[in-house]
C-alpha cells in the first residue's frame, strides 16, 4: 500500500499543472482564462484568419459571414456577422472565449454575450504593425505560442522586405475608391491607408479620420491624384478615365486593383499589399515618362 501511495504521489507530482492565461485585449481589458482556449468563437473574418495563422484553427467552432481566408475556415459553421449574431448557437457551442471585432461588431450584440457570462476578447487591427501582435496574443489565448511566434516573425520579415524595397521610390498621390455612389474612399483609420504608405503612396484623404468616408468628386479633383485605384471590374472607374486633365487619367493610371485581401486586417493581407506595391510601381514608371 505504501508503495502504491508513493507511486500515486509521484504521478501527481509529475503531472503538469494547466496554467491560466492572461492577455490584454484591444479595449485595454485584461482577459484571464483558467486554461488555454480550446473552444473559440470568432465574430469577424479577419479574426478567424488571424486565429488560423496563430495555429488555433482547429479550435475555432464558430465564425462570421463572409469568412473567406484561409480556405479551410469556410468549413467552420457561421454564427453571425457584423450586425447580428446567433446567441443561442454561440451559447450552445460553450466557448472558452468569444473574440469580437471592437469597431465592427454591434455593441448591443456584444453586450448580450457579456451579460450571458461568456468571456469576450476585443480585437482591433487598423495598422499593419498590429497584425503580428494579434497573432501572438491569439497564440497565448489558445496555447499555440510557438506557431504564433513563428508566423508573426514571418509576417514582420515580409513587411520589412516590402518596406525596404519601396522606401526610396517616388511618392505618388493616390485616390482609393471604395464605392462610386456615393463616392467613398479610405481614411487614416483604414488599414489600406497604411498599405499605401508602405508602397510609396500618399493617400490623398489621409487627413480624414473615418475608415470609409464619403467625399465629393470636386474634392478628389482638387487634390489631383497621380493614381486612382478601385476594386471590382473597373467599370465604376470609367468616369475618372474620361477626366483627362487629372494626372491619373492623363498617364493611364486609373486602375482596377485585383487584391481581394487588401482590406482584410489580418495575415492574408500580405498578398494584397504585395499586389498593391507592384501596381503602384508600374504606375510610377508611367508618371516618370509623362510628368
UniProtKB/TrEMBL annotation:
Gene3D superfamilies (UniProt xref): Nitrogenase molybdenum iron protein domain
Name by which UniProt lists this protein: Cobalamin-binding protein
Entry keywords, A to Z: Signal
CDD domains according to UniProt: BtuF (cd01144)
Superkingdom of origin organism: Bacteria
Domain Fe/B12 periplasmic-binding as annotated: residue spans: 39-284
Signal peptide positions (record): 1-19
Record lineage: Bacteria, Pseudomonadati, Pseudomonadota, Gammaproteobacteria, Lysobacterales
NCBIfam families, per the entry: TroA_like
InterPro entries, alphabetized: ABC_Transporter_SBP, ABC_transptr_periplasmic_BD, Vit_B12_bind_prot
Keyword Signal applies: yes
